[in-house]
Write a structure and sequence with these properties.
- By secondary structure, this protein is an alpha+beta fold.
- It is built from 3 helices and 4 strands; from the N terminus they run βββαααβ.
Length: 118
């Protein structure tokens, strides 16, 4: 993910973490995911959920940057807050599909190591 930092300019962020989800409304899940989206296996659903989470993470980081002047070096201090905001935002996007994201864990945001040039 690309992030515009006040001190470093445009930086590429590496973001890792885990999430857990469950089907809370099976009829709605089958209707929306299988019927409307055409997803028929868990890999497709996990991939879709990852895209939702990445989109909402981008929004969350932008919101924190705007409200708290969040910079790359501040991010480790905000991981819990980022995770909670992300969980809340992602939840609103998956409820209509009969899903619930139960948790987001082990969130880690860092910069890629620079490669040495000869």
């Amino acid at each position: 993910m690309t992030f515009r930092d006040q001190d470093f300019g445009l930086v590429r962020l590496r973001i890792f973490g885990q999430f857990a989800y469950k089907v809370v409304n099976p009829v709605q899940f089958i209707t929306q995911m299988v019927g409307t989206k055409g997803y028929s296996n868990s890999d497709e659903i996990v991939s879709w959920l990852k895209s939702i989470i990445v989109t909402q993470l981008n929004d969350t980081l932008g919101e924190l940057k705007s409200k708290k002047q969040l910079s790359v070096v501040d991010m480790p201090a905000y991981l819990d807050e980022i995770g909670q905001m992300l969980l809340s935002k992602a939840e609103t996007n998956v409820t209509e599909y009969g899903l619930k994201i139960m948790r987001i864990a082990e969130l880690n945001i860092n910069l890629p190591k620079k490669s040495k040039t000869p």
